[in-house]
Amino acid sequence: MKRAFDFAASALFLLISWPVLLVIMIAIRLQSPGAAIFAQVRVGKGGHPFTCYKFRTMRAGTANVPTHQVEASSVTVLGEYLRRFKVDEIPQLYNVLVGDMSLVGPRPCLPSQADLVEARKRLGVLTVLPGITGLAQSWGIDMSDPKRLAEVDAEYIRSQSFAGDMKLIWSTLRGHGVGVDRVVRDKTS
């Protein structure tokens, strides 16, 4: 049921919103040089790598490291708004369509985040598809604390339900889950 819902919801949203997404892509390109879509290898189910897509929110040439290790000045003005309202995540609906991700699950990390990958392996987190949003993000836990993040991801897997996923989606749509971006904003203050 989860996969069917993920597929139907992603397809419907992309079908309805493609004109707005096109405008966002043009705005990104007008603000800074580089592709509008950012592609990055992430760790998926079973520890297998996949290419994750997002709207580009940082200047082209920014180091390929976790967000909490990037200088705040790398984030573009438009990128800050896209990140704040989670709009940068919308291209991941394509990842959901092709089966690399789910709407809800542990956020996919970079292969270079060895501590997090190992903690997730140990706790069985890599047995599920990564998600666009998840329990850890709703609780404001970012990837700079790999042990805590993996523990909360494991808690999500133990308690996962369709109703719980709907609550997490609703929480995200209401603006909760700024864990990753909180680090970027704190650097600028």
Automatic annotation (TrEMBL):
GO biological process: polysaccharide biosynthetic process
Assigned keywords, A-Z: Exopolysaccharide synthesis, Membrane, Transferase, Transmembrane, Transmembrane helix
Gene Ontology MF: a single term: phosphotransferase activity, for other substituted phosphate groups
InterPro entries from the UniProt entry: Bact_transf
Domain Bacterial sugar transferase: 2-174
Transmembrane segment boundaries: 7-28
Family under the similarity heading: Belongs to the bacterial sugar transferase family.
Protein name (database record): Sugar transferase
Species: Bradyrhizobium cajani
High-level lineage: Bacteria, Pseudomonadati, Pseudomonadota, Alphaproteobacteria, Hyphomicrobiales
